[in-house]
C-alpha cells in the first residue's frame, strides 16, 4: 500500500516522526519554582508558574485555583497567585507504569454547591492485568491550601481488564446536558474496539452518578454496550464541546493517521478495520475511503502530532482565536490550533513549544494554560504579546 497522504498541512513546522506517548519517570520535584523569564512566541508570551512531576491533567475550580494530577498518583491543589502547590490526600491507588497512572480530573458542573470532582486513573486487576477507572469524591479544602477527597467511590471501569500498560485514554468531560463522557481506549488490543461485549475502544456516556442514560444508542442491548455512544476508536486523549454543542474527540493513530473526529450518535469510526495510518510493524490498514460505512475523521495527521489534551477556546483575551481548538502535541512538541467550519475542521497554525505538551486548558481570564509532559513538567500561562 502507498503511504497515507497528509490531509492537513502544518504551518511553519518541519514534520516530526511519531514517538511513544508515555511520560518519562523520575523523582518527585518541587511544585513551585523561582521566577523564570517569560518566553515570547509569534502570537503569545509563555510564563512559567510551576513545575510538576509527570503532570497529566488540570482543571480550574470556581475560585480560580487549579487541580493538577501527577501520573504517579498525586493530586495537587495549585494557588496561582502564590505559586504554591499543596497535596490533596485521599485519592485512589493508581497502577503506575507505561502510559498508566493518574489521569484526568474535572469538576462537576455544580461544583460550587456539591464540591464533587471526577478522577480517572489506571488500576490493577488480577493476574497482572490493568484497566482504567473513573471515581468521584467530595473535595474538602483546608486553610493551608491542601485538602482531602472524601467519600471516594468508583462509578465506572473498563471491561475487561487486560495485560499491558498502554492506551487507557480515560479523558473525561461533562457535556452541555450534564452527562459524563469518558474516552475508553482499546488498550493496544485492536479488536475490542469493534466488540460490543467490551467497552474498550469506545466513547462512553453516563449520568453523573455512573448510571446509564436510557437514551444512549445501544441502551437496549444492556451490559457494557448500553454505556457506548460511539465505537471503533484507538487511543482517545482529547475531548471538547464547541459553542454549538458539537462534540470533537482526537485520538492517536497507529504509524501515522492521528485523527480529529466529529462525534455522531451511534457511529462506528472503523478502527482497527480502517485507519489513515498503518500498523507499527509495517502491515497496511485500509484507508477510511475504502469503507464509507465507517465515520471518517475530519482531520488526519501523517506525520503524526501525537495529540494530548484539547480545549476549544471561548475567551476574549485572544479574540482572533475564539472558537478555535487547541491540541497539545507530544512527539511534535507543539501547540496545534484547529479551525472549525460547521462539521469540518482543518489545522490552521502550529506553535513549536520545544517540549512535549500533555495538557491544554483555558483559564478564567481567557488565558491559555499548558502542561509540559515529563518529570519536571512546566505549567505555562499563555497571554497575548504586549
Automatic annotation (TrEMBL):
The keyword Signal applies. The keyword Signal applies. Residues 1-24 form the signal peptide. It comes from the Bacteria. InterPro entries: 6-blade_b-propeller_TolB-like, Glc/Sorbosone_DH, Quinoprot_gluc/sorb_DH_b-prop. Keywords: Signal. Residues 52-381 form the Glucose/Sorbosone dehydrogenase domain. This is PQQ-dependent sugar dehydrogenase. It comes from Stenotrophomonas tumulicola. The lineage of its organism: Bacteria, Pseudomonadati, Pseudomonadota, Gammaproteobacteria, Lysobacterales.
Amino acid at each position: 500500500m502507498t503511504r497515507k497522504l497528509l490531509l492537513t498541512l502544518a504551518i511553519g513546522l518541519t514534520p516530526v516522526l511519531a514517538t511513544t506517548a508515555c511520560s518519562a519517570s523520575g523523582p518527585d520535584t518541587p511544585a513551585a519554582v523561582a521566577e523564570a523569564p517569560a518566553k515570547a512566541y509569534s502570537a503569545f508570551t509563555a510564563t512559567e508558574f510551576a513545575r510538576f512531576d509527570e503532570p497529566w491533567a488540570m482543571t480550574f475550580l470556581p475560585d480560580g485555583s487549579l487541580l493538577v494530577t501527577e501520573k504517579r498518583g498525586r493530586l495537587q491543589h495549585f494557588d496561582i497567585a502564590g505559586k504554591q502547590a499543596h497535596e490533596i490526600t485521599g485519592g485512589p491507588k493508581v497502577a503506575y507504569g507505561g502510559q498508566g497512572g493518574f489521569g484526568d480530573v474535572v469538576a462537576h458542573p455544580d461544583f460550587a454547591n456539591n464540591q464533587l470532582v471526577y478522577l480517572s486513573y489506571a488500576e490493577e486487576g488480577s493476574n497482572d492485568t490493568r484497566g482504567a477507572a473513573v471515581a468521584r469524591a467530595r473535595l474538602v479544602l483546608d486553610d493551608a491550601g491542601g485538602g482531602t477527597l472524601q467519600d471516594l467511590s468508583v462509578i465506572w471501569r473498563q471491561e475487561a481488564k487486560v495485560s499491558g500498560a498502554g492506551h487507557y485514554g480515560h479523558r473525561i468531560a461533562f457535556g452541555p446536558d450534564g452527562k459524563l463522557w469518558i474516552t475508553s481506549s482499546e488498550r493496544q488490543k485492536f479488536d475490542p474496539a469493534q466488540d460490543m461485549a467490551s467497552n474498550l475502544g469506545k466513547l462512553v456516556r453516563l449520568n453523573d452518578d455512573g448510571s446509564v442514560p436510557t437514551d444512549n444508542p445501544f441502551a437496549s442491548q444492556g451490559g457494557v454496550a448500553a454505556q457506548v455512544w460511539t465505537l471503533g476508536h484507538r487511543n482517545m486523549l482529547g475531548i471538547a464541546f464547541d459553542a454549538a454543542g458539537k462534540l470533537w474527540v482526537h485520538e492517536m493513530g497507529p504509524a501515522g493517521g492521528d485523527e480529529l473526529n466529529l462525534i455522531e450518535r451511534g457511529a462506528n469510526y472503523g478502527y482497527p478495520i480502517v485507519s489513515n495510518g498503518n500498523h507499527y510493524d509495517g502491515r497496511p490498514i485500509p484507508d477510511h475511503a475504502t469503507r464509507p460505512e465507517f465515520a471518517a475523521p475530519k482531520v488526519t495527521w501523517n506525520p503524526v502530532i501525537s495529540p494530548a489534551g484539547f480545549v476549544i477556546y471561548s475567551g476574549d483575551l485572544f479574540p482572533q482565536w475564539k472558537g478555535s481548538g487547541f491540541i497539545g502535541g507530544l512527539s511534535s512538541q507543539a501547540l496545534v490550533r484547529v479551525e472549525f467550519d460547521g462539521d469540518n475542521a482543518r489545522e490552521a497554525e502550529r506553535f513549536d513549544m520545544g517540549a512535549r505538551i500533555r495538557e491544554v486548558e483555558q483559564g478564567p481570564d481567557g488565558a491559555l494554560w499548558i502542561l509540559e509532559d515529563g518529570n519536571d513538567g512546566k505549567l505555562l500561562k499563555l497571554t497575548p504579546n504586549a
